[in-house]
Amino acid sequence: MNDRQTDLPSRPSSRPGRSTLLSARKFALMASVVAGLGIAGYGVSRHDGSAYLFSSPAHAQVNNEVSKVQKPVGFADIVERVKPSVISVKVNINEKVAKDESGNNDDSPFQPGSPMERFFRRFGGPDGFPGPRGMPRGRAVTGQGSGFFISSDGYAVTNNHVVDGADKVEVTTDDGRIFKAKVIGTDARTDLALIKVEGGSNFPFAKLSDGKPRIGDWVLAVGNPFGLGGTVTAGIVSASGRDIGNGPYDDFIQIDAPVNKGNSGGPAFNTDGEVMGVNTAIYSPSGGSVGIAFSIPASTVKSVVAQLKDKGSVSRGWIGVQIQPVTPDIAESLGLKKAEGALVAEPQANSPAAKAGIESGDIIKSVNGEKVKDARELARTIGSFAPGTEVKLDVLHKGQDKTVDLTLGQLPNNLQAKADNDNNEKGGPSRGTDVPKLGLTLAPANSVAGAGKEGVVVTEVDPNSAAAERGFKEGDVILEVAGKSVTNAGDVREAITTARADNKNSVLMRIKSGGSSRFVAVPLAKG
Q1: How buried is 106 (Cβ within 10 angstroms: 0-12 exposed, 13-18 middle, 19+ buried)?
Q2: What b/e sequence results for 489-500 when a residue is b if at least 16 CB atoms lie within 10 Å of its CB, and e otherwise?
Q3: Cα separation of 462 and 438, whole Å?
Q4: Where are the extended beta strands (E) located within 224-350?
Q5: How far apart are CA 186 and CA 312, in angstroms?
Q6: 8 Å CB contact between 232 and 83
Q7: The whole model's pTM is what?
C-alpha cells in the first residue's frame, strides 16, 4: 500500500519515491535488454521501497534456445554437384573491321537501338573485350565468357555473342584442364551457340530443366565473371517473359543473382541442380551487377541446341506479316472488348499470309486453337514450328471471324527492308492542308516527290498535339483512316467526322514510316 500511495501526485512526499521507482524501472528495462542480448541476465525486485539486483541463468537459456533453431540451409551440396559441368570460354578474334572514331561497330550482333546493342556498344563485344573506342585495329583480340557441358562427349552451350566470329576457342574446365573447341553452330536471334570440345571424354554435364521456373524460386548463377572462373552467386527469379527489345523472340527470365561481364553463356541453376536458363545480358548503368540479369529459358535452349547439333543452324516457320500489338486505344477504335491478339500492319508480297488472304488490319487471334496474347507471342509461336508445317489461324477480318489455313515458309536469315529511300528523296512539298483537330498538316502523296502515289503525306506536326504524342513525324504517309483509303486531307476529315458521329473516342490510322507500316490509334478531340 505504501508504494501505491507514494505514486499519487497529490502528495508532496511522492517525488523522491517516484524518482526512486522510475530509476528502478529504467534499470530493470536496461537489464532486460542486456539479458536479451545474451551478455548477462539480471532481474529487479522491490522490497520495502528499495531495489536490488539478482543474477539469473538467462544467458544459458538463450543459448539453449538458439541451439534449437534450425540453421539456414546453404547451397553447398547443389554447388558441389553442378559446378564441375561449368566451363570458362576464351576466344581469339583477328580484328578485320576497322572502327571509326565515333565508336560505330557494325559487328554488333544485336538489333540497332536495342538495350543489348547499347550495352554492346558501351562495354564491348564478347565479354572481356575492350569497348569500341579502345579496340585495337588490325590485330588479334581476346575475350572471355562462360558455358556448360550438356553431354559427356563434350558438347557445351554458350552465348552467340561470346564466340561469334572467333578464330580460336578454348575452354577451361572446373578442374583446370584446357581444351580446344570448335563452334558447331550459332543462332543470333536467341543469342545461343553450341560448341564441341576436341579431345577428352566423360565430361560432367548439366541437365536442362523440363519445368518452368516460378517467380520467387531460388537461382544459382555459376560462371567466369571478370575471368574469375568457378564463381557462384545466388538470388531469386524476379520475373519471367521479359522483353528487353532484342527482337521478336525475347522471352527472358529476370534474376537478381549477381551476374557480371564474363558470366555470359553460363548457366542459371534451380535448386534441383538443373539449368533453368542461360545468362545472356544484364541491365546496368555502371557495367557491374545491380541485381537485374536476364537468362534464356531452358525450353528455348533445348529447341535451338537440338537444331544446331543436327544441322548447325536454326530454321523457323514464317508467315510473312508485319505485326504489332493491339493496344487499348486500337482495341477501342476497332470495337474490341479486350486488347489481345496480333494486328497485321502489312502482309509481305508473295508470303504465305498474303497468299492465304490475310490483309492489313486483320487481327490474328489464335494459332491451332491456342489463343495469341500479343504480337510477340505470335512471333514466338510461329517461329517454334518447322518450315512446311500447316497451321490454322483464327482471324478477325473487317469485324468478322474467319479461319485461315496456310503452310509456313522459312524465315529468311536476312529479311530485306521493305522500303525504299523515300525519306531521303522528298522534295520541298507545298505546306499542305491543316487538319487542326489532329494537329497535322497534310498533302496528297502524289504531290510530294518520292512519297509514292497512295495516301497523304504529313508535312507538319503540331508538337503539342495528340498526333505528336503518338509518334507522327514529318514525312509519314497516312494510307488509311478507319479502314478506308485516303488520298487527300478531305478524306481524312470525312473519316474523322464519321468516327465521331459513331461516338468513337479514337480513330485508327495506317501509316507508312521509314518504309514500314503500322497502325496508330489517334484520340479524337471533342467538339
Answers
A1: exposed
A2: bebbbebbeebb
A3: 8
A4: 231-242, 252-255, 267-269, 275-282, 293-297, 317-318, 321-325, 342-347
A5: 7
A6: yes
A7: 0.66
Q: Find where cell 493491339 sits.
A: 326
Q: Which amino acid is at 122?
A: R
Q: What is the DSSP letter of 12?
A: T
The stretches of 92-171 forming alpha helices (DSSP H) are 115-123, 160-163
Record the cell numbers describing residue 278, joined without a space.
542461360
**Would you tell me how many other CB atoms lie within 10 Å of the CB of residue 43?**
14
Catalytic residues: 161, 191, 264
Q: What is the CA radius of gyration of the chain?
A: 33
Q: What letter represents residue 471's amino acid?
A: G
Q: Which amino acid is at 478?
A: I
pLDDT on residue 455: 86
Alpha carbon distance, N-terminus to C-terminus of the chain: 84
Helix, strand, or coil here: 317?
strand
For the chain, list residues with pLDDT below 70. 1-72, 95-140, 245-248, 284-287, 413-437, 450, 525-527
Of the candidates 207, 164, 167, 171, the one whose C-alpha atom is nearest the C-alpha of residue 189 is 164
